[in-house]
Amino acid sequence: MERRSIRGPGLNGKEELDGVGATRPDLDRLLAELEVAVPVRHAVSRIVRGPASAIQAAALGDAVHGRDLLAVAPTGSGKTLVFAVGLVHLISGSPSTPGHPRAIVVSPTRELALQTDEVIGVVGAGAGLRTAGFVGGQPLGRDKRSLVAPVDIAVGTPGRLMDLMASGVLSSTDIRIVVLDEVDQLLDPSFRDQTAALLDRCADATLVAATATADADVETELRRRRPDLRIHRVSTDPHGAGSGGPESRPGTPAPTGAHTADDANNPRRLIVLTTTDPEACATSLAARCRRALFFVARRDAVEPLRASIASTGVPASGVSGSASPSRRATAFGELTTGAVRVLVTTDLAGRGLDLENIGHIIHVGPPHSTPDLVHRSGRTGRAGSAAGTVAAVVRPADAARMVEQARNAGMAVEKINADAATSGSRLDELFGPEIAVPRQRRQPAPRDTTRRPARSRVHRPKKKRRT
Predict the structure, then answer these.
(1) How far apart are CA 126 and CA 334, in angstroms?
(2) Is the per-residue pLDDT at 231 higher than 90?
(3) Cα 345 to the center of its chain, rounded Å
């Protein structure tokens, strides 16, 4: 995945006031009160400055003091910085030995693992700690060689971490902290067995879990393993009122001093476009987008939609979980640099990734669940950046399901019949006019290789006369 600056949206919010008008504590002052080392605080200031976000103000104390913790907050609200500061503070001051990290961070996708490794690497550098990323799609031997030198914090996907433990090159005996990033996905059937095996190997370690969506089943499973688990939940209702603090629940009245969620700028409205041909409608919307993510439900739907959009002249790329690591890195890099205006993808890009300045999120067909809708939609309006437009293009039979998911997520809904003749003006208001595609230079005609080249005369030197 392309390396880029981690400064900016996705790590903290810009808003300074909570829901009742109280000023949030300054992040550096909060870390000083928690007795975090000065070099670590300086490292944090390289990433973000200003007031602490709601989840940071609520959960940093428990993270720094080594308590079992579940942090539930909107995407882009600064959860990564919570567990990064906590684990760096707890394991700094003593050395690690080769193959015996003292903390592991588990992420469901390789892109999220590499991004998290970058953030923790900056914070850990303030304490002289070494981090390393271990993800699938690269040779196992390379990861084994990385563990020859001491690694303090191992960041990776569950499958690769289990492979290293099974091979004996990564030991769990010294692990003091286990971080489960996007814990609800890690406890889904696709990762459940690997995550359970990791937790069983690190039964005595402090558990820190973070996600934007955690239901009762997730809390029950974590409490079964850690009875003293402290839960900090920061959420926003449809009207913007927030709730935060230990054991708080979404939709409850905000207590005095509660923090507003950091997704105040995040999309709180979903445009539901009903049409008999979702692919054609999505293709027409692509012409209005400067930087957009188009989400589809299946891997085999990525390439047809990408080809359909590209045929209109809009630069588009596509990627799914089955793509090679280099192809995935190229696709995200093209969107980041502006080489393409549209990236068609599955839920591979739906969680955790900081993709800057995403102006449109288009769901082509209903997401699998409400949490998927929340995570996908959170790719725009990250923290302090302005939120873009979020829309769903569905068939009329799927409209009721789409509306139900949106309302469960606390989003206001506007339904539009995209097939109606009068829908054009409304689409112009919501998505803007079509962007003219720059004219491309005419490509030279291909070289004709069917004609045989003319044969040149072969020079034969004259024979010498015999005397």
Answers:
(1) 32
(2) yes
(3) 13
For 25-59, the pLDDT digits (tens) are: 889 999 999 999 999 999 999 888 888 888 999 99
Beta 342-345 vs 292-296: how paired, if at all?
parallel
What CA–CA distance (Å, rounded) separates 395 from 402? Answer: 10
Select from 295, 262, 466 the least CA-distant residue to 367. Answer: 295
Please check whether residue 42 is in contact with residue 6, taking contact to mean a CB–CB distance below 8 angstroms: no
* Cα distance between residue 117 and residue 144, in whole Å: 17
Which of 73-77, 157-161, 328-332 has the largest mean confidence?
Answer: 157-161
- Tell me which residue of 75, 94, 33 sits closest to 266, measured CA to CA: 75
The set of residues, in sequence order, having a beta carbon less than 8 Å from that of 1 and lying 6+ positions away, is 110, 111, 114, 115, 328, 329, 332, 333
Question: What is the CA angle 206-211-217, rounded to 5?
Answer: 80
Which distant-in-sequence residues (6+ apart) come within 8 Å of 130 by Cβ?
96, 124, 149, 150, 151, 152, 153
What gap in Å lies between CA 278 and CA 395, rounded to an integer? Answer: 7
Annotate 150-212 with DSSP letters as a single string: --SEEEE-HHHHHHHHHTTSS--TT--EEEEETHHHHTSTTTHHHHHHHHHHTTTSEEEEEES
- The two tokens of residue 295 are 């989400």
Q: Which two tokens stand for residue 414?
A: 């506007």
pLDDT in tens, 84-125: 999 999 999 888 899 999 999 999 888 888 889 999 999 999
Residue 445, Cα to own-chain centre: how many angstroms?
43
What's CA 178's distance to the chain center, in Å? 20
Cα 169 to Cα 171: distance, rounded to the nearest angstrom: 6
- Give the other-Cβ count within 10 Å of 431's Cβ: 22
Q: Is the pTM of this model over 0.85?
A: no
For residue 195, give every residue at least 6 positions away whose Cβ sits within 8 Å of its Cβ, in sequence order, or none: 106, 158, 180, 186, 187
